[in-house]
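Supplementary notes (optional reading)

For those who missed the lab, this is the record we used. Protein: Anoctamin-1. Length: 98 residues.
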Amino acid sequence: AFVIAFTSDFIPRLVYQYKYSSDGTMHGFVNHTLSYFNVSDFEPGTAPLQPGHLGHDVKVCRYKDYREPPWSSTAYQLSKEFWAILAVRFAFVIVFQV
């Protein structure tokens, strides 16, 4: 039950489809799972050595996590989506065991 709940996208997909999707489909799921990171927030000495190698200036990166965006008052903190998915994962484990 723990392996299914915590290592697969089974639970996040269900939560997205039934709680966050506007039309009940998986359209937009990948975008929903990506958080924002402002590249100006790199700690000193941790930024890429050649930031312009892509041919354009990158201001924001996306990464897989459920975090608040940098423009939020609680920047980079775990989002409400994270806590909702975690609760459903634990509920799945309990129901699976019964």
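If you only remember one thing from this example: Residues 47 and 53 are 13 Å apart (CA to CA).
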